[in-house]
Design goal:
Elements lengths: L2 H18 L1 H7 L5 H7 L4 H29 L2 H19 L4 H29 L2 H15 L1 H16 L3 H21 L14 H12 L2 H31 L4 H25 L5 H24 L4 H27 L6 H22 L9 H21 L16
Length: 407
């Protein structure tokens, strides 16, 4: 590989990673504001957490729409439309008059943020396959995983200077910047001759073929359940860390950001060693780590252990996501190049549907109990384990490294 090619790969990874960052930033940046938003709107913690649920639902539904749309119209045009919508929705959240309007606006914001998630993954599949797909996706994850580090820290920093509305004004600015960058830098990666016909029935058939593919579903549910556990962690830790353990919003942001390094660690292990260790082996290791970490976390919260006994297993649980997400995505997408947008959408839809169900469960016992969060995280890990070993009959075998296309 020439230095120019390496440079282009890095530039593409930075651009696509920035688009994918829109999801984590939409989810995570306002997390330190949860207690403040509850007071501002004079509402309950559960109702504030529902704003996260509606955002996750929006992200799921949005992917279902933009995925097939990008298979028909190409990657650039739908992405630009969704980025404009994101800018408007972010401003609407900032100036919401009540919690219910805020919740509805969060759905639209999540819906529009889906554009960056789906298109970034579909572009990767347009350009790469096989182990090259795994390697590039690991590189993309390196950029993408900066989101969980930067987003809560950004949110905590913004709160040090202004109120929670400033968070959403900053998100609106990010949407505008991404729109300008995409307009200037992102080339179309899906030629007209490779696009699917504009036929709603064909879209349905594409999704039907994916839903009938046992291995694809196995990988999709494996990834979906583990990410649902991550959303339980995302929804629960603002209250667990701040209300139960009494940490400040700034300390919470630091603790939350440390787990971004855990994500990076997991994904980069896969990217560096995938020529030596098969993806399926990495996936099994990730599932083992997530289940052990989930079990330790559940025991810790049941015993009301010190903060360190909660933070450490969460770190390992989050690191397992870096392994599981990278490998399961690559294995699921490898044979779906002809309908990469639809496959990417379905892979994105399941985690957000499952995550939207998991997030409210962590608040069922109130703001002063960490047990529901521990139970949901452990259950999600175990269900991911069952999904892989129950649905994926035979691991994919890759005999040689397919060549990637240039950009």
């Amino acid at each position: 590989m020439t230095e120019i090619t390496k440079r282009k790969r890095l530039q593409l990874a930075l651009l696509l990673g920035s688009l994918a960052l829109l999801g984590p930033f939409t989810i995570d940046t306002y997390l330190p504001s949860f207690p403040t938003i509850a007071k501002e709107f004079d509402t309950t913690a559960s109702l504030v957490q529902i704003s996260l649920t509606t955002c996750l639902l929006g992200l799921g539904v949005g992917q279902l729409i933009i995925g097939p749309m990008s298979d028909v119209q190409g990657r650039r045009k739908p992405l630009l439309i969704f980025l404009i919508l994101y800018l408007v929705a972010s401003l609407t959240c900032a100036f919401a008059p009540n919690i219910y309007f805020f919740i509805a606006s969060r759905f639209i914001q999540g819906f529009s943020a889906a554009g960056g998630l789906v298109v970034s993954r579909a572009v990767v599949r347009d350009l790469y396959s096989g182990r090259e797909l795994t390697k590039f996706f690991a590189l993309l994850m390196l950029v993408n995983n900066l989101g969980p580090i930067l987003a809560p820290v950004t949110g905590g920093t913004i709160l040090a200077f202004t109120d929670w509305t400033g968070v959403f004004i900053v998100l609106a600015c990010i949407g505008l910047i991404l729109f300008l960058i995409v307009s200037a830098k992102l080339e179309e990666t899906l030629p007209s001759e490779k696009r699917t016909p504009s036929d709603p029935l064909q879209v349905v058939r594409n999704f039907g073929s994916l839903l009938k593919n046992r291995q694809f579903l196995g990988y999709a549910f494996t990834q979906g359940f583990i990410i649902a556990g991550i959303f339980a962690y995302v929804s629960g830790t603002p209250f667990v860390y701040q209300n139960i353990y009494g940490v400040s919003p700034q300390v919470f942001s630091i603790l939350f950001g440390i787990n971004g390094f855990a994500l990076m660690l997991g994904s980069q292990l896969v990217g560096r060693l995938t020529d030596i260790i098969p993806e399926t082996t990495f996936l099994k290791i990730g599932l083992l780590v997530s289940n052990l970490a989930g079990a330790v976390l559940l025991i810790s919260v049941l015993l009301k252990a010190p903060l360190a006994a909660v933070v450490i297993p969460i770190f390992f649980f989050v690191s397992s996501l870096g392994i599981i997400s990278t490998t399961s995505f690559s294995l699921a997408m490898d044979a779906q190049g002809h309908i990469a947008g639809s496959a990417s959408a379905l892979l994105g839809l399941l985690p957000f549907i499952l995550g939207s169900l998991a997030a409210p469960l962590v608040g069922v016992a109130g703001e002063n109990s960490a047990v529901p969060m521990g139970m949901v995280i452990f259950s999600a890990s175990f269900l991911a384990f069952l999904s892989y070993f129950g649905l994926v009959r035979k691991p994919s075998q890759r005999i040689q490294v397919p060549k990637s296309r240039g950009i």
